[in-house]
Amino acid sequence: MLDKQQENLLIADIKRGDRRAMEVLVKEFERPVYNAAYRMLGNPDDAADVTQTTFMNVFRKLGQFNSSYRLFSWIYRIAMNESIDQLKRRPQTEQLSPALAAGGPGPAARLQATQVSQRVQSALMELSEDYRSVIVLRYFTGCNYEQMAVTLSIPEKTVKSRLYTARQLLKTSLVDNKESNL
After folding, report:
1. Distance between CA atoms of 145 and 163, rounded to whole angstroms?
2. What is the pLDDT of residue 181?
3. What are the residue ranges of helices labelled H in 42-155?
4. Per-residue pLDDT tens for 50-100?
5. Higher model confidence: residue 158 or residue 115?
6. C-alpha–C-alpha distance, residues 142 and 123, integer Å
7. What angle do CA 147, 33, 171 make, to 5 degrees?
8. What is the pLDDT of residue 94?
9. Cα 57 to Cα 96: distance, rounded to the nearest angstrom
């Protein structure tokens, strides 16, 4: 992760039209943005589209960036907004794709990991956008409460409350889902 001074230098270089600086910014944030979008959308193609759109918006709106904030918070906020917009454009009856298989040492472990991943992704997709976004930011992008509050433009207390509720909803969904599969 870049420190504040590195972010400011990178932004200044990009504003001057330095293509290499643009590549550095994309390389630094592309994977976390994709992961956040994937966890919000549950579809790799949609996540890739959101990632691309996010960076197009970042470069287009860089002049509006307030340097008193962290760059990653601003970029993640753009990614979250794009993900939410993508969700709103979907037909309500569309089936969401299951999560891709996670690696493991053998076929049985891979199957179990895939099943767990699918259950978690399915439960995550059942959450509202507000709850899903706090889970994604906390557990899949590693943001702390302050970063989440800045990214979501909500008070830190609201972040904590939503995160607590989201965890409870996930737990209930996963327990209910597990019991129905027995």
Report:
1. 9
2. 57
3. 44-61, 71-89, 107-126, 129-135, 145-152
4. 999 999 999 999 989 888 888 888 999 899 889 988 888 876 544 444 544
5. 158
6. 20
7. 70
8. 47
9. 26
Contact between 10 and 114 under an 8 Å Cβ cutoff? The reply is no
Q: Report the alpha-carbon distance of residue 30 to residue 46 in Å, rounded.
A: 14
Buried-exposed string 21-42: b where 16+ CB fall within 10 A, e elsewhere: bbebbbebbeebbbbbbbbbbb
Averaged pLDDT for residues 155-174: 92
φ/ψ of residue 126, rounded to 5: -75, -20
Q: Indicate the residue type of 17.
A: G
- CB neighbour class for 134 (10 Å; exposed up to 12, middle 13-18, buried from 19): buried
Residue partners of 98: CB distance under 8 A and separation at least 6: 118, 121, 122
User: Model pTM greater than 0.85?
Assistant: no
Q: d(Cα 169, Cα 85) in Å, to the nearest integer?
A: 23
Dist CA 85 CA 16 (whole Å)? 31
Tokens of 82: 């794009």
Delineate the domains of the chain, giving CATH numbers in brackets: 1-90 (1.10.1740.10), 102-182 (1.10.10.10)
Mean pLDDT of 170-180: 77
Task: State residue 144 phi and psi, 5-degree precision.
Answer: -90, 175
Question: Dihedral of CA 55/61/62/64: which sign?
Answer: negative
The DSSP call for residue 97 is P
